[in-house]
Design goal:
With about 475 residues, the protein is α/β, with parallel strands linked by helices. It contains 14 helices and 17 strands. Strands 7-13-12-11-10-8-9 form a 7-stranded mixed β-sheet, sandwiched between helices.
């Protein structure tokens, strides 16, 4: 039976979401049949990855260097990469639409990055542990690009979030924080609360209960739903005097892509200002993938502090945190010390300079236009087959969300069709298109991708739609 869908809550005009006008349910038995066939197909062409995982598991837990990389029965092991393409240990070529969540925004082995890094390796040096013109120049470039008064470099998003919170605590003299339910912000203990928790553990949607893993010492962390100003205002009214900061991705990118309602981020800014609570935008995943100056400037809401990583480093480990001068002054006057042997080393500064040169407004706009063309084509397939799905995008990132209605928060995400999400991801992998593993599939169009590459993604989706309706 075809269902005519109602108009949804307006989303921020700086983001993209296209909902279907009509949809029909998909028989879950058909999904199960296709999944069984696809997993059998997977093991038929990836035996080398299976053997490598057995070997790797003898020295690395789960056989991987980050737990997210693992899936059952085993993940694909990659031997090399160039541009937008990967080669696995069996010699299969795969289109990379994961691109390290944005870390490979300029493509694998981008020649400008290679040139700059080679110059550092052969003539400049790799590590001084002293001030250097290379770090100063990149700080000045980031100042201008991202609108930061002061900033410091780190080596990972986790580090940047940890130090941003410590800056907020030192500046406000308060300890507690607020985070968004379901959101992921790296490995710092305080931010491990309510990261994709089981619904049974987190109470009613209108009054979320923080879920704290046993191995975590979190401190005081309040949890609120994304796109719900009422919840945020209630927590601030009750606890605001003790809260240092709200940590939020301006656009959530660990639940596929969840975009803010129109006016939501401005409301967050106003509510926090009323209680002297700092706003920290986690732009580790958005950053340059959201546009030339990141999501904050794209969406028109300026936080107190911003964290950056992934897209700024050209594939090398680089991150940063920074923001308003009066807040970052806590590092100057010693209220919060920030250390790090590898911070701003000349090797990663060389890569960062290359990325800054490559990622012009024109280059990023062209990649975003390519992403939008692919999503437009997928929208047509969704409409033709009346699929209970829709596309969401921000900058060069996009996804298909398996729901006919908008996903505005974690609880909505948990109500999507995970069987279809798994099938959609595996269907692509079996046809040479690699997106991040898990049930929150999301792709990234790098500066190395072409329209022909994106046509592969679109055609695979067309074939999946036909198989679902066969």
């Amino acid at each position: 039976m075809t269902e005519t869908l109602q108009t949804s809550t307006a989303h921020d005009p700086g983001t993209r979401r296209r909902l279907p006008e009509r949809s029909q349910p998909i028989d879950p038995r058909r999904v199960e049949q296709l999944l069984a066939a696809e997993w059998e197909r997977f093991t038929s062409w990836s035996r080398g990855s299976g053997e490598h995982n057995k070997r790797a598991s003898r020295s690395l837990p789960l056989g991987v260097t980050s737990s997210f990389q693992h899936w059952e029965p085993y993940p694909i092991s990659i031997a090399s990469a160039r541009g937008a393409w990967l080669t696995d240990v069996d010699g299969n070529r795969l289109l990379d639409l994961s691109m390290g969540f944005g870390a490979m925004l300029v493509g694998h082995l981008n020649p400008v990055v290679v040139e700059h890094v080679t110059e550092a390796l052969t003539h400049t040096g790799t590590l001084f542990v002293t001030p250097s013109p290379q770090a100063t120049e990149m700080a000045e470039r980031f100042q201008g690009r991202f609108g930061l008064d002061l900033l410091r470099f780190t080596n990972s998003g986790t580090e940047s979030l940890m130090y941003a919170i410590r800056v907020a605590r030192a500046h406000t003299g308060r300890k507690a924080i607020i985070k968004i339910e379901g959101g992921y912000h790296g490995g710092y203990d305080a931010l491990q609360v309510s990261v994709k928790p089981d619904l049974a553990d987190i109470g009613p949607a209108e009054e979320p209960i923080p879920e704290v893993p046993f191995d975590v010492e979190a401190g005081t962390v309040h949890v609120v739903a994304y796109n719900d100003l009422g919840q945020l205002e209630r927590v601030l009214a009750e606890h605001g005097r003790d809260i240092a900061a709200l940590v939020i991705e301006p656009v959530i990118e660990n639940l596929s892509i969840v975009v803010p309602d129109e006016g939501y981020l401005a409301g967050v800014r106003a509510a926090c200002d009323a209680h002297g609570v700092l706003v920290i935008f986690d732009e580790v995943k958005t950053g340059l993938t959201a546009g030339y100056a990141g999501a904050a400037q794209r969406l028109g809401v300026q936080p107190d502090l911003i964290t950056l990583a992934k897209s700024i480093g050209g594939g090398l480990p680089l991150a940063a945190f920074g923001g308003k001068r009066e807040i970052m002054e806590v590092v100057v006057d010693g209220r919060m010390a920030h250390f790090g042997t590898y911070n701003g080393n000349p090797l990663v500064m060389a890569a960062a300079r290359a990325v800054d040169e490559i990622c012009t407004p024109e280059a990023l706009d062209a990649a975003e236009a390519m992403n939008n063309r692919a999503m437009d084509a997928i929208d047509e397939i969704i409409a033709a087959h009346e699929l209970p799905a829709h596309t969401v995008g921000l900058g060069v990132k996009g996804c298909v969300t398996w729901s006919a209605t908008p996903v505005r928060n974690y609880r909505d995400y948990k109500a999507t069709d995970f069987g279809l999400a798994e099938l959609s991801w595996l269907w692509g992998v079996n046809r040479g298109v690699l997106t991040p593993p898990g049930l929150d599939e999301q792709w990234l169009v790098s500066l190395a991708h072409t329209d022909d590459d994106m046509a592969v993604l679109v055609e695979d989706f067309r074939q999946l739609a036909e198989a679902l309706r066969a």
